[in-house]
Structures are given as structure tokens and as C-alpha cells.
Design brief:
The chain has 472 residues and is α/β, with parallel strands linked by helices. It has two domains: 3-169, Leucine-rich Repeat Variant (Alpha Horseshoe); 188-471, Rossmann fold, CATH 3.40.50.150. Helices cover 44% and strands 13% of the residues. The protein has 22 helices and eleven strands. The protein has helices spanning 3-9, 12-19, 22-31, 34-42, 53-58, 65-78, 84-93, 97-109, 116-122, 128-139, 145-152, 160-169, 199-203, 232-249, 279-289, 312-317, 343-348, 352-358, 386-396, 412-419, 431-442, 460-471; strands at residues 193-196, 211-216, 250-260, 263-265, 275-277, 292-301, 329-337, 369-371, 402-405, 423-428, 456-459. A nine-stranded mixed sheet has the order 8-6-7-3-2-9-10-1-11. The chain has a two-stranded antiparallel sheet with strand order 4-5. The termini are far apart. It binds S-adenosylmethionine. The site of S-adenosylmethionine (SAM) has 19 residues, from strand 10.
Length: 472
């Protein structure tokens, strides 16, 4: 029976009659099929008067684990301490882990001190989710010294989420930065600034927690002409240093969006193979280790006609192992600076007017597949399409925020930032690309036809002077 039919057959009045009469409910549970039972169990609502206790208890022998789970869930609503033993039995013995977890949750929901020894015993369960539920139940009594002591004992639990919650709740460890500056503000000298110079040299002088959002596409190892690294290891080490600095200069709980993709270094001759480097997969663990929390993986998909054709050979020979798909995707990896604070905390740092102005009111991407054509530029070989920058800025920043690109290239991110009423801070080491940005400015070619401040172009020496002036 489908849901619409069930909904018609068991409306709210019907369900009220069932749950307020033990006999009627019992005979219903005994005679109806699993589909009807599940539907009614999911819609029983509040159960204070205890009429449903006996019929629900009988369902605990049901073969269908979903029905046992829903029976436990409903029994928990009755709030009857005499059910503690039954919940414990199912928490330990049920063959379904889902039913065991629900039973521990039911014990916690009793919020009764008698449950403490049982919850403590469940801290030793082999299923981390059962342990997590037991912790939840025990945290209600977090002032109780025995409870605290027992929770402390599992600080070295192998599960990372358990370790994190114990550290936070019992040991008071948090990731907060302690920065006292206002969250929606940043140093004035970084406003619409372009630094011509090396990113590491520049970042040395950027104050902690200045940036609201970083969106960047780093060099593609040695795949393009603008960078040369002795080895892949040297390349990854360089990115690690830069992204550690990006972490330092990022405000609490704010986002870092990274555009990378696997690259291919062509073979030197027919006797050798070409080599693929899985850059996103190698960078990810480095980022997580330094304190970036993984949030999302967005896939930027380009039209097939715009990318290099790799499958001409396969098209002819059709032999397994020789298959080479055309690479139409790049990764847009989304991270957040690790913190104990929820996203709501970040939002609450802005006044209502700014939140309102920043709302994404027009059409937005509903999935993690973003179809955007590439942009080709006469000077730079790998520029961001402005549409991509627009989306990232709108989804991950507020108006008047500072948007940073440590590998700015042609500065497309700056253009998008200004157009969306944000400020930019860009670093680029190649004079030809910075000149490209200036050219755009002189031609009044929209790039910086800024309604707000005009952009400031400096080299590293002058940037250092700026940072010193700011301190005076
Ligand atoms: C993939 S491109 C970025 C393109 C950019 N997203 C755009 O829209 O034009 C990477 C850029 O990083 C720059 N770069 C590489 N190493 C750098 C360094 N050590 N300091 C500053 N910029 C660097 C390169 O010159 C190149 O322009």
C-alpha cells in the first residue's frame, strides 16, 4: 500500500482512537500488515497516558527490525522508568544495530539517574554509535562526578567523533581562536589590494584572522608554464605551507574553497607512459590535518567539446585497460576553519541588514554538479570563469566581507568580489598577470570600475610598509 493510501486510511482521528484504547491498539497490531503497522507507529504522536504501552511491548518480538525499532521509539515517549530493563536488554542483545542504538537513545530519554550505571556499561559497547548515544544520555548528568570520571576514561577511544565530544564536554578543549576583533571587520589596508609578489612572503605580513573567504586555484604542479617544481613532493610541501598560512589568516569558522583537478604530465616518448597526479586526493589529507574541516565536494563540469580529447585511441581499438575518458570535471573542495561554533554563530556576527543584503535570492545550484563553460584568456592559460567566482562568493560570504585569492592570476575573483559588494585581496607573483589586471583598470574594463574603493597595486616591499602604517 502506498503512503497516500495509508494516509487516507489512518487519519489523525483514527490514530487517536487507536492510541487511546489498549485493546483496539493490540488487535490492530495483531491483525494488520507490516506496512500499516509502520505507518501508524511513525504517526502515533505523543503518548502520555500509557494506554499503548502493553501493545507496543508485544511488538518487541516482531521479526521486522523496523517495527521493533519504532516500538522502542514510541515506548521511549511514555517516559516510564519501569521500561529501563527492557531497553537495556534490547540495547545489548538485539541483532539489529539500529534497534540497539534506538534502545540506548530510549534509556537516555528517560533522563533518570537510575539509568546512569547502565549507560556507563554501554560506554564499552563495540558500536561507536551506541557509545555516542550512551554519552548523550550521560551528558544530561555531566555535573555528576562519577559520570565525568567514567566519560574521561574513554578519552582515548579509537573513534574520532567520540574523542572530540569527550574533549569538548569533559576536558573543555575547544578550537575557538580567542580572537577578539569584530568578525565582520578586517584591516583597512587589505581592502581591494593586489600584491605583486610571492604568496609566502606576502602572507607573513597578513594579520591573523583577517580574511572571510578564500577561493583559489593553485598552480597545477608543472602542468602549466607559470610554475616549476623539482618534484611533486616539493609542490605539495609548498601548498601545505601556503594553506597553513591561509588557515591562520582566516576568521573563525570561515570557508576555504579550493579548485584543483588531477593533472597529466605527458610521456617523454612512446616507450614510456604519461603520469597522472591526483592533486585533490593528495591535498585533502594535508588540509584536514592542519585544521580545515571538510564540508563539501562540488564538481565543476565543462562541456566535452571544450576539453582535450583523450579517447581517440579507445574509439578505434576498444580494448579494455586502454580506456581513457575525457576529463570534463574539476573539483571545488569546500572546507571550514575548524571551530566549536556552529554556522549560526558566524551568521549572528552580522547585523540583520547585512544578512538580508547577502541573501541568495535568485536561482541557485541545488546539487554539487555545477555545469559551467571554461573561460579562455589571451594572457593567462587557466582563468576562473566569472560565473564560478560569483557562485562561490554568494554561497560562502556576506556583503562587505574580504575575499582572498593567494594565486590570483588574472584576478577574476577580484572582479566578482567587487560586483557582489565584497572587497578583495589578491596576490600574484607574475608581473604579466598583474599588468593584465591593471590594463583592465585603465581601460575601465569593468574589472575595477569599483563603486567603492579603487584598487591598490603594491609590491611586497610596499605591502610591508602598508602593514606597518596600519599598526601605528
Ligand atoms: C591556476 S593559476 C590561477 C588563475 C586564477 N584563478 C585566474 O582566475 O586567473 C595559478 C596562479 O598562481 C600564480 N603563482 C604560482 N606560484 C605563486 C607564488 N609563489 N606566489 C604568488 N603567485 C603564484 C601563478 O603565476 C598563476 O597565475
Amino acid at each position: 500500500m502506498n503512503r497516500a493510501v495509508l494516509q487516507k486510511e489512518f487519519n489523525k482521528d483514527e490514530i487517536d482512537i487507536l492510541k487511546n484504547d489498549t485493546k483496539i491498539l493490540s488487535s490492530f497490531f495483531e491483525t494488520k500488515n507490516d506496512g500499516s503497522l509502520v505507518y501508524v507507529l511513525e504517526n502515533l504522536g505523543r503518548l502520555e497516558n500509557g494506554c499503548s504501552k502493553e501493545p507496543l511491548l508485544k511488538l518487541l518480538d516482531n521479526k521486522n527490525e523496523n517495527i521493533r525499532l519504532l516500538a522502542i521509539k514510541n515506548l521511549a515517549k511514555i517516559g516510564d522508568i519501569s521500561l529501563l530493563k527492557i531497553f537495556f536488554k534490547f540495547a545489548q542483545k538485539d541483532e539489529s544495530t539500529e534497534v540497539r542504538r534506538e534502545s540506548v537513545s530510549a534509556i537516555g530519554r528517560l533522563r533518570n539517574e537510575k539509568a546512569i550505571p547502565i549507560l556507563i556499561e554501554l560506554l564499552l559497547d563495540k558500536d561507536p554509535k551506541v557509545v555516542m548515544q550512551a554519552i548523550r544520555g550521560l551528558l544530561v548528568f555531566s555535573k555528576n562526578s562519577v559520570v565525568r570520571q567514567e566519560l574521561k576514561k574513554i578519552i582515548n577511544h579509537p573513534n574520532e567523533l567520540i574523542k572530540e565530544v569527550i574533549n569538548k564536554e569533559i576536558n573543555g578543549v575547544n578550537y575557538s581562536s580567542g580572537d577578539t576583533g569584530k568578525h565582520d571587520e578586517f584591516p583597512e589596508f587589505l581592502k581591494n589590494l593586489v600584491v605583486l609578489g610571492d604568496v609566502m612572503e606576502t602572507l607573513n605580513y597578513v594579520p591573523n584572522e583577517s580574511v572571510h573567504l578564500t577561493f583559489t586555484s593553485p598552480p597545477y604542479y608543472n602542468a602549466k608554464d607559470y610554475s616549476i617544481y623539482q618534484s611533486y613532493e616539493e609542490y605539495l610541501n609548498f601548498l601545505e605551507k601556503v594553506f597553513k598560512e591561509v588557515h591562520r589568516v582566516t576568521k573563525e569558522g570561515r570557508f576555504f574553497v579550493l579548485n584543483t583537478s588531477p593533472i597529466i604530465i605527458p610521456r617523454i616518448s612512446r616507450a614510456h607512459s604519461s603520469k597522472r597526479y591526483p592533486i585533490p586526493y593528495d591535498i585533502h589529507p594535508i588540509l584536514v590535518k592542519m585544521g580545515w574541516e571538510f564540508i563539501d565536494d562540488i564538481v565543476w563540469v565543462k562541456p566535452e567539446a571544450s576539453v582535450k580529447n583523450r579517447n581517440a585511441g579507445f574509439l578505434q581499438h576498444r580494448k579494455p585497460l586502454g580506456y581513457k575518458p575525457n576529463a570534463v570535471s574539476e573539483m571545488i573542495m569546500v572546507y571550514r576553519k575548524k571551530t566549536d561554533k556552529l554556522i549560526d554563530w558566524n551568521i549572528s556576527q552580522y547585523n540583520w541588514d547585512k544578512v538580508k543584503k547577502s541573501k541568495v535570492v535568485d536561482k541557485y545550484e541545488t546539487t554539487n554538479i555545477w555545469r559551467i563553460g571554461p573561460t579562455f584568456d589571451k594572457v593567462h592559460s587557466a582563468v576562473f570563469p566569472i560565473e564560478l567566482c560569483n557562485k562561490v562568493i554568494k554561497y560562502y560570504s556576506f556583503v562587505d566581507d574580504l575575499i582572498f585569492d593567494p594565486f590570483a592570476g588574472s584576478g577574476t575573483l577580484g572582479l566578482a568580489a567587487v560586483n557582489l559588494d565584497r572587497y578583495f585581496f589578491l596576490v600574484e607573483k607574475e608581473p604579466k598577470y598583474v599588468n593584465r589586471m591593471k590594463e583592465d583598470l585603465i581601460r575601465g574594463n569593468s574589472l575595477f570600475s569599483s563603486k567603492k574603493n579603487q584598487p591598490n597595486f603594491v609590491d611586497v616591499k610596499n605591502f610591508i610598509l602598508l602593514t606597518k602604517k596600519e599598526k601605528i
